[in-house]
Amino acid sequence: MTLRGMKNDSLPTSEYNLDIAIKRLPLSRVSAFLPDGTGDMSGYLNGSMKVVGPEANPSINGYLQFDTAQVRIQNYGSALTFDGRRILSTTGV
């Protein structure tokens, strides 16, 4: 994962100008943030995001995409698979 850019805090309203690139981020690392006994994640996350604007209301554009991603839910003994379609953010949300 790469993060490039700056935060201009010399203005009355702090401004972001960031580029985030995610290439094959292992989702197994996310499992550490799930509550104990919830489940385990596998696969990868890819994406590219641009964050610009004021700290209170930044504009976020880009995409996230799962790559062979799956979450195994221990309590139910089942696994859910994420498809590989891009999740777009093109409206600045």
Structure description:
The structure is a single chain. The chain has 93 residues and is an all-beta fold. It contains no helices and six strands. Strands 1, 2, 3, 4, 5 and 6 form a six-stranded antiparallel β-sheet that branches. A hairpin with a 4-residue loop joins strand 4 and strand 5. It is elongated, with a radius of gyration of 16 Å. The chain starts with a strand and ends with a strand.
List key phrases describing it.
93 residues, mainly beta, 6-stranded antiparallel β-sheet, elongated
Major sheet, described briefly? 6 strands, antiparallel
Please report the total strand number as a whole number: 6
String of helices and strands: EEEEEE
Question: Helix/strand/pairing class, anyone?
Answer: mainly beta
Number of helices: 0
Radius of gyration: 16 Å
Q: Uncertain regions: pLDDT < 50 for 5+ in a row?
A: none
Strand content: over 45%
The dominant shape is elongated
Helix content: under 10%
SSE map:
Elements: E1 2-8, E2 15-26, E3 39-54, E4 59-73, E5 78-81, E6 86-92
Antiparallel strand pairs: 1-2, 2-3, 3-4, 4-5, 4-6
Tell me briefly what this model is.
With 93 residues, this protein is mainly β.
